[in-house]
Amino acid sequence: VSYIVLSSGNLGASGALYLADLTTHTTSLVRAWNNGGFDSWIYSWSPDGQELTYLSSDSSGLQWHMLSGGGDKVLSNLGPVPPRDVNSDVDDTMVGFSADGQYVAVETTMTQGGGGPTSPAPPVQVNRVADGSIAYSRTDGSMAAWAGAGAHLYFSTTAGVQSWSPSGGVISASAIQWIRPTASPDGSRMAFSVLNAQQ
């Protein structure tokens, strides 16, 4: 089990990520930070537990990392997070690995520009775990989640839910625009919310 401890509940607090082994009852430090900015608590483990992907954030902006036995690699500079109101129906940030552990993805609507000239990276990006190279990216999209066997990333766009896979590219999965999708443990189903247009 992994967990985060913060020095205070305030943005900018120092913190650390720990890993607890429930068999040996030991705890080890995975990483620590002195000043955690926006989204600096977001992370995900690979299916085999050998790699960690996480976000770090400070006054210069948001960075996407992958930590493994080979070291800590910055996969992308996602740009600054400007102060603004957050719309929980469309704003989202996630990082995660595909079911086969071959790909890792980031999705965020929080950085400035959304892939435009003021933002170095697009809001949806998939990298290969083996060498960190970019496998897919796009300049729009939010509410992403991995599901299914292999590597299938689903994300919402103005045209509805799209799906990307390394073998099939991008296809339309649904005309709905979902909110907060979460895959079942076996990857065969997806739970999500939709906005009630009547309210």
Short précis:
This protein has 199 residues and is an all-beta fold. Helix content is 0%, strand content 51%.
Q: Give the low-pLDDT segments.
A: 113-119
Relative helix content: under 10%
Overall pLDDT confidence: 89
Q: What assembly state would you assign to the polypeptide chains in this entry?
A: single chain
User: Main β-sheet: number of strands, strand sense, barrel status?
Assistant: 4 strands, antiparallel
Structure description:
- The chain has strands at 2-6, 15-21, 26-33, 43-45, 52-58, 61-68, 71-79, 93-97, 103-108, 124-128, 134-138, 142-146, 153-157, 160-165, 169-174, 178-183, 190-194.
- It is an all-beta fold.
- Strands 4-5-6-7 form a four-stranded antiparallel β-sheet, with no helix packed on it. Strands 8-9-10-11 form a four-stranded antiparallel β-sheet, with no helix packed on it.
- The chain is globular.
- Residues 113-119 have low confidence and may be disordered.
Q: How is the topology of this model organized?
A:
Layout: E1 2-6, E2 15-21, E3 26-33, E4 43-45, E5 52-58, E6 61-68, E7 71-79, E8 93-97, E9 103-108, E10 124-128, E11 134-138, E12 142-146, E13 153-157, E14 160-165, E15 169-174, E16 178-183, E17 190-194
Antiparallel strand pairs: 1-2, 2-3, 4-5, 5-6, 6-7, 8-9, 9-10, 10-11, 12-13, 13-14, 14-15, 16-17
